[in-house]
Amino acid sequence: MPLSFLDLPAEIRNDIFRLLLTHTTPIVARSCNDLKPPYPISSLGLHPNICLASRAVHAEASSILYGENTFQAHPTFLTSSTFAIDHRRPVQSWRCVEQIRRWHVRVRLDCDPFYTPQVVVETFTGADALEVEVFRASWGMGGYGALEAFTKVRGVRKAKVHGSLETSYAKWLEVVMMRGFGAEAVGLSGEP
After folding, report:
1. Distance between CA atoms of 95 and 35, rounded to whole angstroms?
2. pTM above the 0.85 mark?
3. For the chain, what is the radius of gyration of the CA atoms?
4. Between the N and C ends of the chain, which has fewer C-beta atoms within 10 Å?
């Protein structure tokens, strides 16, 4: 009797999923339940249609698709408009957003954020990777108030903070976000 794809060892299936579903550039998906053409995403070499093969394949593959690629949180609305390369095609399913483990977010310092500190903490605490790119219209405009919520994030395995801010504050914030759950921030606090 011929073997089916699901008869292959899990390690081999996961290797195949990684070849089809991961890329170093952030990916685009509308919903984990709505992976319809125009896929495959040929410019990235991604083939999320494999998720449509069966429920079992979808369950295994979606954890790799959403867990091993970097997704961009919308700079204003965070997870309510998570996207990758194309902001016009956001991930709309909370089930999918909850599987995302690697994040990139741009934070503008000279504007008040529209998201709450609670959403920032719930979204990014425990992430595998979090890159916070900080920018402002003009150097010296706006303080670090928009980053205040990020000082409460903990348990990030790899944090990177860069852009229009002092290097010492960026490094301090990286260390704070990588501290264990429930750990207090030490060293710098508030405005440098």
Report:
1. 14
2. no
3. 19
4. N
